[in-house]
């Protein structure tokens, strides 16, 4: 089976990409509106791309009715946001926050999600997130006028204490249960893991 992207409608391309590029990490992005309402919205076209500086990027398309999403409006006003990661206890609330909420209704308030102050920006983080990264906008890329790629520089990290081995600088994987996005309303758990020995590389004859 083969396709040329030009032969597919945008929605069909979306279905092909999201059906095979998975599981995808989810950026649960908190922003703050002009009246102080805190918005929380999940984005699964997301990942980290660099560590020096620490950069992440997510894609925000327009709403089905053509309106710009509150997340984008808020980021363009403040140039600040927090990327919160999701684990199993938070997964249902994360999914519910993807619904349609008017700007005056904050998802954290509506879904009884606890907020905590950030350290270097005004936007609060989700207090129960296993990992949260305070971000300043690094760059924006407009795609065809209907999608915005938001690149953020992580300027402060928050890690749930029991998840991190500070001495080894390593996550306790047996305690961290992230949720991945599949497609449509489907998600996956990530506890079925495979560990390989270190790769040996090419073996040369002696």
Automatic annotation (TrEMBL):
Short name of one Pfam family: Flavin_Reduct
UniProt domain Flavin reductase like: residue ranges: 19-178
The protein, known as: Flavin oxidoreductase
Coiled coil regions in record: none
UniProt keyword annotations, A-Z: Flavoprotein, FMN
Recorded GO MF terms: FMN binding; oxidoreductase activity, acting on the CH-NH group of donors, NAD or NADP as acceptor
Cofactors named for this entry: FMN
Protein family membership: Belongs to the flavoredoxin family.
Superkingdom in the source lineage: Bacteria
């Amino acid at each position: 089976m083969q396709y040329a992207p030009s032969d597919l409608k945008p929605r069909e391309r979306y279905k092909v990409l999201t059906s095979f590029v998975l599981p995808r990490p989810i950026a649960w992005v908190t922003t703050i509106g002009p009246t102080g309402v805190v918005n929380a919205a999940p984005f699964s076209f997301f990942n980290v791309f660099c560590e020096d500086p620490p950069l992440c990027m997510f894609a925000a398309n327009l709403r089905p009715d053509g309106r710009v999403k509150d997340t984008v409006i808020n980021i363009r006003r403040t140039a600040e946001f927090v990327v919160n990661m999701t684990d199993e206890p938070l997964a249902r609330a994360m999914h519910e926050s993807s619904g349609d909420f008017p700007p005056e209704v904050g998802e954290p308030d509506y879904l009884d999600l606890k907020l905590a102050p950030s350290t270097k920006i005004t936007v609060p983080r989700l207090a129960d997130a296993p990992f949260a990264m305070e971000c300043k906008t690094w760059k924006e890329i407009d795609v065809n006028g209907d999608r915005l790629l938001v690149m953020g520089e992580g300027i402060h990290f928050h890690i749930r204490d029991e998840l991190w081995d500070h001495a080894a600088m390593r996550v306790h994987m047996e305690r961290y249960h992230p949720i991945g996005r599949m497609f449509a309303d489907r998600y996956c758990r990530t506890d079925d893991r495979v560990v390989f020995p270190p790769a040996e590389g090419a073996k040369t004859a002696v």
